[in-house]
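Thread: sanity check for a docking pose with S-adenosylmethionine

Original post by kr_44:
Hi all, I'm comparing my docking run against an independent structure prediction. Below are the sequence and the ligand SMILES. Could someone generate the full complex and paste the structure tokens? I mainly care about where the ligand ends up relative to the chain.
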Amino acid sequence: MTKRLRIISPKRNRRLQTGWEGFFPYYAGYPELFARELLKSARLPHSAVVLDPWNGSGTTTYTATSLGLNSIGIDLNPVMIVVARARLLPPSEADHLRPLAATILSHAHSAPLPLQPDDALLGWFDPATAAFVRGIEQNIRRSLVGSMTKSPDGVHLDRISGTAATLYVALFAACRRLVAPFRSSNPTWLRAPKPYDTRIAASKAAIARDFGNNVRGMSAALAEKHEADQSQKRLPHPGDCKVSLSDTVTMDLAPGSVDFVLTSPPYCTRIDYTAATRIELAVLAPLLKTAERALGRQMIGSTQVPKGEIDVDEGWGETCLGFLAALRAHPSKASGGYYFRTHLDYFDKMNRSMQRLAVGLKAGGRAVLVVQDSYYKDIHNDLPTIITEIGAGHGLTLAQSKSFHLRSMSDVNPGRKTYVRPSGATESVLCFTK
Ligand SMILES: C[S@@+](CC[C@H](N)C(=O)[O-])C[C@H]1O[C@@H](n2cnc3c(N)ncnc32)[C@H](O)[C@@H]1O
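Reply from moderator J.T.:
Ran it for you. Here is the predicted complex with S-adenosylmethionine included:
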């Protein structure tokens, strides 16, 4: 008889995001406390492997590592790979961060390098600002991204050192503050400037100060965390963690290699996970193999119309088929066209990912998925039931679940104001066994 899991609310909570945690805010993430309580209650042996196939800011991998469990985190967005790697930085490295940042800044000041005319940062910043930001980035890359990360086919961000990743996160935060004028009320959306928009200008001193402050803050928070952990004797030998830049639709997990899955799949509410990290992608551009648009198309929940035809699959279950039929028949503009096709793309990618996830999970293993429902205009998209039915098609049985009401929905779906529907959303924690 498997033990029941302890499920507390997975709702994001600013109060819980302080100290080291506060440096990794992600609108799409769940709190570390949620992951910690759940993983502890699973009573996994220390040899167990925990997988998060949609690892985002790395809450699962960070928590598993600190509990002494081995983990694998997958994400398709290179930014989230860097963030998840930074979060794993061992506290012993806290002291190195400030001197390293000082050296990087001094090189960026003393030896400015010419900026390439097509540098992605020029989409946001005026040439002087872009050149200084790129100078910092180049110096992080030159001093900390070494032969372990590079190979003939390019840079492997999933091998980047925790120190390099942390300095990148400090630079991301500085750039994010600079581009605040391009933020909208929707937390998931960072508007790209139009060619006629004035580019952002900031002095070298202001950029250096912000970057330096971020590094100082991270270093202090990491040292504080270490002290707190030591005083609470919460220091098991950290587990091994592999963070991998891959696509769950094509991922290749060895059959039966995973003991436990803890994850929150991409939302089905037209969240463009690449648009939300546009500025970070511009910072990382020299290290990337895939352009932003191509990456956006690959994402589950993409807002781009898929190339080629996708057939509705009976295996997606009756709730999904009913939802798709209602969506297609909806009288409003573009429902039967654009919206139908992007939803087909979502369910097709989710189904293929769930199939691969189920293969990777060992018999008797458990998979916990945090899933939110939503509305397309006045049609209920009961994603928790849809995922349950897709899971059943791949040999996953729902053994336990708990739902939480959210006051607001992470929703950029059309029709929010026009159609009558309940306010908020339901977030369900679905626990499957294989
Ligand atoms: C809801 S978020 C996960 C948040 C995470 N639980 C946390 O605490 O930060 C979903 C993640 O799935 C990723 N994603 C979307 N499509 C993907 C795909 N095809 N393969 C792998 N990751 C994908 C997105 O980049 C995003 O970070």
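The pocket of S-adenosylmethionine is lined by residues 26, 28-30, 54, 56-57, 59, 74-77, 80, 247-249, 264, 266, 273, 298-300 (CB under 6 Å). Hope that helps with the comparison, let us know if your pose agrees.
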